[in-house]
Amino acid sequence: MSPLRLPDFPWDSLAGHTARAAEHGGGIVDLSVGTPVDPVPDSVREALSSVSEIPGYPTTHGTPALRAAAVEALRRRHGIEGLDPEAVLPTIGSKELVAWLPTLLGAGSGELVVIPELAYPTYEVGALLAGADVLRSDGLTALGPGRAAMIWLNSPSNPTGKVLGVEHLRKVVEWARERGTIVVSDECYLDLAWTSEPVSVLHPSVNGGSLEGLLAVHSLSKSANMASYRAGLVAGDPALVSRLLAVRKHAGMIVPRPVQEAMKAAFGDDKALLAQRERYAARRTVLRTALTDSGFRIDDSEAGLYLWASRDEPADDTVGWFAERGILVAPGTFYGPRGGKHVRVALTATDERVAAAVDRLTAA
Ligand SMILES: Cc1ncc(COP(=O)(O)O)c(C=O)c1O
């Protein structure tokens, strides 16, 4: 057996800073990860338990009602028209799909997977698991004439919060179609926009009304506080989705039936989504002000759950500065070499913890 070439798990390297931050008398404020802290909507919890008596295996494709609810939510919330419910596939959270997609699509040795320069680490992991090569690039010209099997987009971005405009998305889709490259757009922060409106790759203004060669990845972890449920989906090109379905059936990659019911409820509950957005918007406002008052520049951060902050010093020094104040943030280097002078500050802490962070930053 050949050993897997996987990177170290980034958060393990934060142990020293975590210990330092935990020494603070007022307790640690952990803004280093994007894990939800607010309540799971009642509608979701009720739906989960409403089918808990069902003993049989769930279907890999998900219930027709779940897929219809997803299609309807994508239409209502993001103007996505013409998505066939057959071309929607629930996933066990989106991380597993991100990690296995190149393998499931058959991208392997000698093939190229393109990921953003600053990227959620699992895009690289997925390519490595498949034995494919990885290239970090935000531009198309850098890619040269060689064929890429897949290109990942992530708008709004983790970690930067940058939103890609329609023009940019359209160019990537055209470029990819000319070369037979699959475009996979991770849109797990699409519902959480602040200063610009992100657009899905499934929107007709991007794809000209055809979903050929396109996949969008969505998640209910952040928008519906369902990270513990493991609830995501992939949708788009019917031929690609049916390929994924075929492999996932064989491999037992099935979303549990109660979670399917909970997902359906979440896709119908716009009120809960709105309430959650307001919570994050309020935390973002106070954290952003406290950071800029403390001498930080906030770059991008137009949408999503993070503030991308810099004082133009090495990221590890900035993480240390925060840890001295009992606050844990993630160094930009977790997301790629270009993040060397930034830190990522998450909005996912309770109002009480965010207020504690603001007090400590203001006192600094
Ligand atoms: C860009 C991005 N994609 C995917 C995920 C995975 O989310 P989940 O597996 O909870 O759906 C995350 C989680 O932080 C993320 O930031």
Automatic annotation (TrEMBL):
Limits of the Aminotransferase class I/classII large domain: 28-361
Keywords associated with the record: Aminotransferase, Transferase
MF annotations from Gene Ontology: pyridoxal phosphate binding; transaminase activity
Pfam families recorded: Aminotran_1_2
Cofactor names: pyridoxal 5'-phosphate
SUPFAM superfamilies documented for this protein: PLP-dependent transferases
Protein name stated in the entry: Succinyldiaminopimelate transaminase
